[in-house]
Amino acid sequence: MKKVLTIAGSDCSGGAGIQADLKTFSAHGVFGMSVIVSVVAENTSRVIDIQDVRPDMIEKQIDAVFEDIDVDAVKIGMLSQPDCMEAVAGKLKQYAPANIVLDPVMYAKNGCPLMNPDAIDTLIEKVIPFANLLTPNIPEAEKIAGMSIHNVEDMKKSAEAIYRMGCKNVLVKGGHASGSALDILFDGERFYTFDAQRIDTKNTHGTGCTYSAAIASNLALGCSLQEAVHRAKEYITTAIRHSLAIGKGHGPTHHFYELYQNGLKNGAEINNGQ
Ligand SMILES: Nc1ncnc2c1ncn2[C@@H]1O[C@H](COP(=O)(O)OP(=O)(O)OP(=O)(O)O)[C@@H](O)[C@H]1O
Ligand SMILES: Cc1ncc(CO)c(N)n1
């Protein structure tokens, strides 16, 4: 069985973070493992408080996994402070795992901050160079690239600027744009687009976590990057289409294994071109 690790924050309400990642791993038939970087008291409406795990404890969790188990892919999510980022980066250097997917989480869907804005330089200098794939949404791509994004051309320009920071591939997600749900992948040479119909729902809590965890699962299963993103786009589109009206705010996506299989069989209408 393929083994995939998430290094991220815990969402006690179950829709995002570590919890979304582990549900996504199970739906893909891979063995999920987790290193908790922050404990977040949050729900579908708000973030109440964040307690970061001590950096040496983050390092020890990563050691515990890698000294014992071969890891086929790593998904990295919420890293709230520079010292958490440095702890994770040091261990990525030490263990050099394959297939690192980095979701540079900055805000929850309800707008609450999950990363200290002063940590962005550390993210760029210390963590981004380890990523095989970076998956910013539009506001995150704006902050990292230092430009504003108004259209698809701007999404492409931001992807090029972020690529130059040392990650091997960049996927700028269009969930925050209007029109169809269009994502742009840049591999340093070419752009690939992954487009799906926008689903009219407020229940999109944890979509970015789910998407990046699905990409990491597919990479662990041996897919090429383009195939991994294509399949993950089908997965997230199906999970949003069947999202759950749980809670009073942005409800979570749905991770039923059977739903995933049916979604794939029914072909969740993804157009990918170049
Ligand atoms: N309403 C929607 N209908 C269809 N696809 C969507 C919708 N909203 C987001 N997506 C898709 O979901 C994926 C995740 O993108 P999004 O930009 O929402 O991530 P995110 O903002 O990082 O999520 P979060 O911070 O809540 O975890 C992308 O493929 C995006 O195109
Ligand atoms: C712990 C955690 N990670 C990521 C997100 C972004 O959706 C969230 N809301 N909570």
From TrEMBL:
GO cellular component, as recorded: cytosol
User: What Enzyme Commission number does this protein have?
Assistant: 2.7.1.49, 2.7.4.7
Record-linked InterPro entries: HMP/HMP-P_kinase_dom, PM/HMP-P_kinase-1, Ribokinase-like
Q: What GO biological process terms does the UniProt entry carry, in alphabetical order?
A: thiamine biosynthetic process
Return the CDD domains for the record.
Answer: HMPP_kinase
SUPFAM superfamilies this protein is in?
Answer: Ribokinase-like (SSF53613)
Catalytic activity, reaction form:
4-amino-2-methyl-5-(phosphooxymethyl)pyrimidine + ATP = 4-amino-2-methyl-5-(diphosphooxymethyl)pyrimidine + ADP; 4-amino-5-hydroxymethyl-2-methylpyrimidine + ATP = 4-amino-2-methyl-5-(phosphooxymethyl)pyrimidine + ADP + H(+)
Give the pathway: Cofactor biosynthesis; thiamine diphosphate biosynthesis; 4-amino-2-methyl-5-diphosphomethylpyrimidine from 5-amino-1-(5-phospho-D-ribosyl)imidazole: step 3/3; Cofactor biosynthesis; thiamine diphosphate biosynthesis; 4-amino-2-methyl-5-diphosphomethylpyrimidine from 5-amino-1-(5-phospho-D-ribosyl)imidazole: step 2/3
Under which name does UniProt file this protein? Hydroxymethylpyrimidine/phosphomethylpyrimidine kinase
Keyword check for Lipid metabolism: no
| Enzyme class per UniProt | transferase
**Keyword match Nucleotide-binding:** yes
Q: Where is the Pyridoxamine kinase/Phosphomethylpyrimidine kinase domain?
A: 11-254
Q: Which UniProt keywords apply?
A: ATP-binding, Kinase, Nucleotide-binding, Thiamine biosynthesis, Transferase
Q: Which family does it belong to?
A: Belongs to the ThiD family.
**What's the source species for this entry?**
Paenibacillus elgii
Give the molecular function GO annotations.
ATP binding; hydroxymethylpyrimidine kinase activity; phosphomethylpyrimidine kinase activity
